[in-house]
C-alpha cells in the first residue's frame, strides 16, 4: 500500500517535464527531438495510476483548453474524499479555479517543503512545465477543494 511520501515522490519525478495539453507521457527523444509532456489533470491521473490510487482505466475525458471542473470533481469524488483545507497534507490533491471562473480548472498534488510548509506540484501552463512551489497565495485563495486518497488516510508523513 503506498504512503503519502510515495505519492509525493512520484509527483516530484515529473518536475521539469514539459507542459503539453492533455499530455500523459514523460519527455522522450524521437528522431533527435524531445517530445511528450503532461498537463495538470494528466499529472493527477498518472500519479494516481502509478501509486495505485486510481485504476489504470481512469482518465479525464478529452477537454478544451481547461479541464471541465465538474468532471474533475466527479472523478475525485469517486476515488478520493473531500477534506477541509486545514487538514491538507502532502499527497493530497488540490483543485483550483482560475481567474474569472467559479469551477476548478487546475489541479496539484500537495507536497512538503522545508520548514514544515506545504508545497504543490503541478503542470503549470504559464511556466510550460511541471514545477514545485509553495502552497501559498494566490493559490490558497483560488482553492476550491482538497481531496485525500482514502488509502493514505492515517498514514503518517
Features:
alpha+beta, endopeptidase fold (from Nostoc punctiforme), 157 residues, 32% strand, six-stranded antiparallel sheet, 8 strands, two-stranded antiparallel sheet
- CATH architecture classification name: Alpha-Beta Complex
In CATH, the homologous superfamily goes by the name: endopeptidase domain like (from Nostoc punctiforme)
Distance between the termini: 14 Å
Order of helices and strands: HEEHHEEEEEHE
Radius of gyration: 15 Å
Mean pLDDT over all positions: 86
Q: How many strands in all?
A: 8
CATH fold title: endopeptidase fold (from Nostoc punctiforme)
Record the SSE blueprint.
Layout: H1 4-12, E1 24-30, E2 33-38, H2 40-51, H3 69-79, E3 81-83, E4 93-97, E5 104-113, E6 117-124, E7 129-134, H4 139-142, E8 143-148
Antiparallel strand pairs: 1-2, 3-8, 4-5, 4-8, 5-6, 6-7
Helix pairs in contact: 1-2
Write structural notes for this entry:
The longest helix has 12 residues, at 40-51. The model has no long low-confidence stretch (mean pLDDT 86). Strand 1 (24-30) and strand 2 (33-38) form a beta hairpin. This protein has a single domain (4-151), classed as endopeptidase domain like (from Nostoc punctiforme) (endopeptidase fold (from Nostoc punctiforme)), CATH 3.90.1720. With 157 residues, it is of the alpha+beta class. A six-stranded antiparallel sheet has the order 3-8-4-5-6-7. Strands 1-2 form a two-stranded antiparallel ribbon. The protein has helices at 4-12, 40-51, 69-79, 139-142, and strands at residues 24-30, 33-38, 81-83, 93-97, 104-113, 117-124, 129-134, 143-148.
Amino acid at each position: 500500500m503506498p504512503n503519502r511520501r510515495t505519492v509525493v515522490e512520484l509527483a516530484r519525478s515529473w518536475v521539469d517535464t514539459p507542459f503539453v495539453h492533455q499530455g500523459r507521457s514523460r519527455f522522450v527523444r524521437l528522431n533527435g527531438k524531445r517530445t511528450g509532456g503532461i498537463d495538470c489533470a494528466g499529472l493527477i491521473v498518472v500519479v494516481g495510476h502509478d501509486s495505485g490510487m486510481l485504476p489504470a482505466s481512469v482518465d479525464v475525458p478529452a477537454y478544451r483548453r481547461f479541464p471541465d471542473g465538474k468532471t474533475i470533481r466527479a472523478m475525485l469524488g469517486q476515488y478520493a474524499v473531500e477534506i477541509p483545507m486545514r487538514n491538507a497534507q502532502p499527497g493530497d490533491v488540490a483543485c483550483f479555479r482560475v481567474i474569472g471562473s467559479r469551477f476548478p480548472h487546475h489541479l496539484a498534488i500537495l507536497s512538503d517543503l522545508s520548514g514544515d510548509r506545504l508545497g504543490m506540484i503541478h503542470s503549470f501552463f504559464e511556466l510550460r512545465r511541471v514545477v514545485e512551489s509553495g502552497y501559498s497565495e494566490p493559490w490558497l485563495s483560488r482553492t476550491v477543494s482538497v481531496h485525500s486518497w482514502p488509502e493514505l488516510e492515517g498514514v503518517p508523513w
